[in-house]
Amino acid sequence: MTFNLCVLTPNRIVWDSEVKEIILSTNSGQIGVLQNHAPIATALDIGILRIRLKDRWLTMALMGGFARIGNNEITILVTDAESASDINPQEAQQTLQIAEANLNKAEGKRETIEANLSLRRAKTRVEAIVETIKRIS
Predict the structure, then answer these.
(1) 63: helix, coil or strand?
(2) What long-range pairs does 10-19 form, CB within 8 A, spacing at least 24?
(3) Is residue 52 located within the same domain as residue 99?
(4) Last residue of a domain, which of 84, 111, 128?
(5) Is the pLDDT assigned to residue 66 strictly greater than 70?
(6) Looking at residue 13, which CATH number applies to its domain?
(7) Cα–Cα dist 21/57, whole Å
(8) How sure is the predictor about 33, in pLDDT bands with cuts at 50, 70 and 90?
(9) If you average pLDDT over residues 108-120, what whole number do you get?
């Protein structure tokens, strides 16, 4: 029993295929979705999207957006999305270190907010990689 998942960014279609289950990071916590889920629209936080295919899970880093669930279709509109398999681990770790350093030297409210967002994005990318490695091991 499957349903269609479509993940879109402003520039591309990241995913458009049948899945068995997903777990989303919403602004109010995580939500699991199976076939015949009740209709819902929700805001998405910067976080991990877990996608269950037949017998394996895939992980994707989402950079915030919205999801619409209904009629066995889920449409996810996000600022950006990356499959964990497409993320370079060394580059992601380096980006995380830079984001942490930028937060430490941020001055003023605006710089602090921007640095916090960059740090959350960087942590999400690293988390996606770590979760994928754990599933493989």
Answers:
(1) strand
(2) 10/79, 14/60, 14/78, 14/81, 14/83, 15/51, 15/60, 15/81, 15/83, 19/51, 19/52, 19/53
(3) no
(4) 84
(5) yes
(6) 2.60.15.10
(7) 9
(8) very high
(9) 96
